[in-house]
Amino acid sequence: MKVKSVLAAALAAAAVVGMSACGSSGATNDDSTITFWHNSTAGDGKAYWEQVAKDFEAANPGVKVEIQAIQNEDFAGKIQTAMQDPSTGPDVFMALGGEKTQEMIDAGQLMDLTDKISDTVKTDMKTALKAATYDNKVYGVPVSVEPGGLWYSKDLFTKAGIADTPSTWEDLLKDATTLKDAGIAPIALGAKDAWPAAHWYYWIALRECSNSVYEKSVQDKDFSDQCWVTAGEKLEELNKLNVFNDGYLTTTAQQGANSSAGLLANHKAAMELMGAWEPGVVKDLTEDGKAMADLGFFAFPSIAGGQGEKGALMGGVTYFSVNATAGDNAVKFVNFIGEQKNQEAYAKAFSTIPASEPARAVVTDPALKQVLEYLDKAPSMQLWMDTELGTNVGNALNSAVVNMLSGNGTPEDIVKAMQDAGAKG
Q1: Among 39, 234, 289, 369, which residue has the least CB neighbours within 10 Å?
Q2: For 127-147, what is each residue's pLDDT tens digit?
Q3: Third-level CATH fold of 147-313+384-423
Q4: If you ran DSSP here, which 8-state letter would residue 187 be given?
Q5: Domain spans of the chain?
Q6: Shortest CA distance to 388 belongs to which of 182, 100, 172?
């Protein structure tokens, strides 16, 4: 699979309810203390990072890792604020990716790790590492690869009499209607958080726009091609079928049993469009706290007449960056995260695909194995569109999609919002 060098970590993996912290929140001049920020606030993910910190401390006597776990929806804002002054920001933290990471590089906030990453990371993550590479310099160590697609309840599909997953847009509309007629909420959507709703627009655009148009539009912030309006019209078509869960405009994405992920986890909705962090998220939201036994996956459908690259994926690579002011132990810590045994443990804890290619042998979840099959065949993987566009244009896009879904905007308004935000720089 070809992964673009511009591809950088997406909004990452999973995270669930609440916020917890221990220790100080900022960088320290004492290299014996590493301040570490991540977005896993509960469950196996939180426990994983606590264990990694303990293991690193044991292997490096005298070094202390102070962890701050921040809820996913709050993470970007908190890290951007903290890193305005790198001397008070965390030493190691989950990167934001795309244009957002580029902005931090330009501001001198991130350490160039090109000559500091271990041989293990260079070898085992040779493909995923491209996601953390900007202008041929490496600014992070990856932990997971997270293509997106549709996650669904096999039991609910069977209950509605649907034998095969949809491979075309028309099939998706038909199946969603069939589920609705069977009294089942077809699609879980956490539109309160904006980006989950906008994911539908990103994917439709990826199928409607040719690869060259898509990439040039995103790079130049020029969305004048008709495919961008058509993408909005397709999403509007889906919305008019009333196939999203009741109250989707006020539903969160990952926070508790009533979130969109929680609706899927507890069989109150049949499917959700998300990244490959989904199995780990729904596992923490089921009634018994166990993995969703009937969880399945299928790639976003093709669209008749669309010019998009066949089999192209959208997703991200989650990676961890180092503060430009941090010491040598912070670099040792990100290399430690990249070791195969820690990557294998990461894959198990988060129920996701590790960045380390040798570590992928531990992936046993049937749905994730399906994702790996699509990943291996994909000609390319674009970064989540809002992340690649950067904060200003990305936020404008996400908000405009929600406005249209709520009846306060049009497909043309989505394009205008992106154009206007892009023009402001």
Answers
A1: 289
A2: 899 899 999 999 999 999 999
A3: D-Maltodextrin-Binding Protein; domain 2 (3.40.190)
A4: B
A5: 7-144+318-359, 147-313+384-423
A6: 100
